[in-house]
Amino acid sequence: GTWPAGSPAARTIIQQCSRAKVKIKPALDGADAQWAEIQEGMVVYVCFFHGATEDVTHEMVIQLKLSTGCSVSVLDLPGNVLFIPQDSLLGEPVPKRRVQYKGGCEPWWGAQLLSNLVFTCRELVAGSVKCAKADVKVEQGVYGQKQEIVLNCVEPMTLLLEF
């Protein structure tokens, strides 16, 4: 089916952090859990709606702004980025104080879109001298698993963006 005009293809919540990590592998057979971790930068919670295409991931990377009193693009502000898939962002309020989660894309496609988003972001970072000097990292959680996170921030600046 066609996607209604004006409906978002993706929704993100961006949160500034001084340090953040997400568990990517649980502790198993005596081995420690593994985490994807960043210092100073931002956490980007992301969900994709049904009908989202690869185009949206390119648009997202270009538009990802961090509000620091003024909008600064990720590339101008050498900070790390941690992408965390978060399907709960699909939630829409319905009567009787309930929340309905619908309209998400197929899990295999969501995983592909997240992978594209991270790849595109890493490519842009790799091509930036400023990012290379600041040793910028782009990390991600594992799509489709529970997102166990630890987040430190001095001042939680949070921004909702739809694409």
Automatic annotation (TrEMBL):
Cross-referenced Gene3D superfamilies: D-tyrosyl-tRNA(Tyr) deacylase (3.50.80.10)
UniProt xrefs under Pfam families: Tyr_Deacylase (PF02580)
Record GO terms (molecular function): D-aminoacyl-tRNA deacylase activity
Catalysed transformations (reactions): glycyl-tRNA(Ala) + H2O = tRNA(Ala) + glycine + H(+); a D-aminoacyl-tRNA + H2O = a tRNA + a D-alpha-amino acid + H(+)
UniProt xrefs under InterPro entries: Daa-tRNA_deacyls_DTD (IPR003732), DTD-like_sf (IPR023509)
GO CC annotations on file: cytoplasm
Assigned EC number: 3.1.1.96
Enzyme class: hydrolase
Entry protein name: D-aminoacyl-tRNA deacylase
Species for this entry: Seriola dumerili
